[in-house]
Amino acid sequence: MKSTARCSRQPPAAPLIAMLWLSACATGGSDTIAPCPPIVEYSSVDMKRAADEVGALPESAIIIQMLADYAVLYNQMRACR
To answer: Which residues form the signal peptide (predicted)?
Structure first.
């Protein structure tokens, strides 16, 4: 005689609960676009001072690479507008 004890049990609820929790988090569409961050405008005096300060740094200074990366991000933000 076959045992039917396994067939009469309820399926585990954990996967269903997990699916409901995950789907509940998705309240907005995936097509939403984040707003562009604000762009800080610098005066020509500030730009000249910054150029002079960077020019005084040794070529091996890491801040020069960081500023180059910042320039790329800054241009991307301008394109976002």
So the answer is: 1-26
